[in-house]
Specification:
By secondary structure, the protein is an alpha/beta fold. It folds into two domains: 8-264, Aspartate Aminotransferase, domain 2 (3-Layer(aba) Sandwich), CATH 3.40.640.10; 267-382, Aspartate Aminotransferase, domain 1 (Alpha-Beta Complex). Helix content is 40%, strand content 13%. The strands form three sheets. Strands 1-8-7-5-4-2-3 form a seven-stranded mixed beta sheet, with helices on both faces. It has a two-stranded antiparallel ribbon with strand order 6-9. The longest helix has 22 residues, at 8-29. The structure holds pyridoxal-5'-phosphate. Pyridoxal-5'-phosphate binds at residues 59-61, 85-86, 88-89, 138, 164, 166-167, 188, 190, 200, 202.
């Protein structure tokens, strides 16, 4: 049997009867949008990552847009994010007429480099054209960004901080989740993410009740909030009064019902992923340019297990010939990527990003990767003389 890059069937087999029963229950009660399972899942998700409030939404891209819309991001505003990320991190910024500024990452962790971030903010201030407003840190490949430093920088410049945890929901730094530092954490439940559903889904998490109220309004067409209603007399049902421009970004009840079952085994799956990662590191550390380095105190969710090799393309072809599936994340960083090239590539060059785009290679990674399959991957890499 061919090895999977990510094996969703193995997980499905583990919780098949629970998931099927949960879906049946939704089919029977028929509240397909914002049904009771959505509220239950939001409460459980908030609890899992020790945050006051979680709100489900349609996907991880719109999860990023919700706080930006709630904060009133506008033309002339700058949002700082890594260039080495999935496009969605930057995509939502031009939606609102603002501009992304691309920052380099650290060679060791592939996460946003705090020193380069400061240089980029200072350069934007010196230029005077844009106003620095928001930092979006990404928990790339499942590893928490350096949030204590990110928070310090955001506070120093009076900026907001978003944790794009689409790949890293569940990651901790010294036992704490990104929401401990970020104003809002966003995540995606796309099936291939560590916590995925059976379609599209996403969530925002925050300890800021006022922000939560605004994001809840934005996700439902800018509906009236409890605060909007205070001291105001409406002549009609305020349900149809739209206080702000919003959108439709709701989480389906069926997806929430599936996610409740997946969240039940998620902590165990993070442990299993870490076992796989440790075994890879042991088998590969002397045979490739780099195995992943995890910051002190961080538990990664290992959305991807990414090694580096000088002859990445040669190694990938060799692995393909040995029936080992791999992928490259990300071959085209944002600052040289089509529609995004016109935005500012931070201060100076993105040296690390420009280097690692040619050396990174993601190996098969999921909680149910067997030792036999993993040995096959390790042996295939060791046998490459390129
Ligand atoms: C997947 C991903 C997103 C977008 O999530 P979708 O649910 O696919 O919209 C955003 N940021 C990062 C870093 C991602 O990996």
């Amino acid at each position: 049997m061919l090895m999977h890059f990510i094996d969703l069937h193995a997980q499905r087999a583990r919780i098949e009867s629970e998931v099927d029963a949960a879906i049946q229950k939704v089919l029977q009660h028929g509240m397909f949008v914002m049904g009771p399972e959505v509220r239950a899942f939001e409460a459980q998700l908030a609890e899992f990552s020790n945050t006051k409030i979680a709100l489900g939404c349609a996907n991880g891209t719109e999860a990023l847009a919700l706080p930006l819309m709630a904060w009133g991001l506008k033309p002339g505003d700058a949002v700082f994010c890594p260039s080495f990320t999935f496009c969605a991190t930057a995509e939502i910024v031009p939606w609102l007429g603002a501009e992304p500024v691309f920052v380099d990452v650290k060679r060791e962790t592939y996460n946003m480099d705090p020193d380069h971030l400061v240089a980029c903010i200072d350069a934007v201030i010196a230029e005077g054209r844009l106003t620095p407003k928001v930092i979006i840190a990404v928990d790339l490949f499942g590893q928490s960004a350096d949030y204590p430093k990110m928070r310090e920088i955001a506070d120093k410049y009076g900026m907001k901080l978003i944790a794009d945890s689409a790949q890293g929901y569940g990651t901790t730094l010294n036992g704490k989740h990104p929401g401990e530092w970020a104003d809002v954490v966003t995540t995606s439940f796309f099936p291939a993410k560590p916590l995925g559903c059976y379609g599209d889904g996403g969530a925002v998490l925050t300890n800021d009740e006022q922000l939560a109220e605004l994001m809840d309004s934005v996700r439902v067409h800018g509906k009236v909030t409890a605060s909007d209603l205070k001291g105001v007399e409406f002549e009609h049902d305020p349900k149809y009064f739209n206080m702000r421009i919003g959108m439709n970004s709701r989480l389906d009840t069926i997806q929430a019902a599936i996610l409740i079952e997946k969240l039940n085994i998620f902590a165990d799956e993070i442990e299993l992923r870490n076992k796989v990662a440790d075994r890879y590191a042991e088998g590969l550390k002397d045979h490739v340019l780099a195995v992943p380095q995890v910051m002190d105190g961080v538990v990664s969710t290992w959305a991807q297990y990414v090694i580096e090799h000088e002859n990445r393309d040669g190694l990938q072809a060799h692995l393909r010939a040995n029936d080992v599936p791999t992928a490259v994340y990300y071959p085209v960083p944002m600052h040289v990527n089509g529609a995004y090239e016109k935005y500012k590539a931070g201060a100076g060059n993105l040296t690390v990003t420009d280097t690692i785009r040619d050396t990174v290679l993601a190996l098969p990674m999921h909680p149910y990767l067997s030792e036999d399959d993993q040995d096959k991957v390790i042996e295939a890499i060791r046998s490459f003389n390129g």
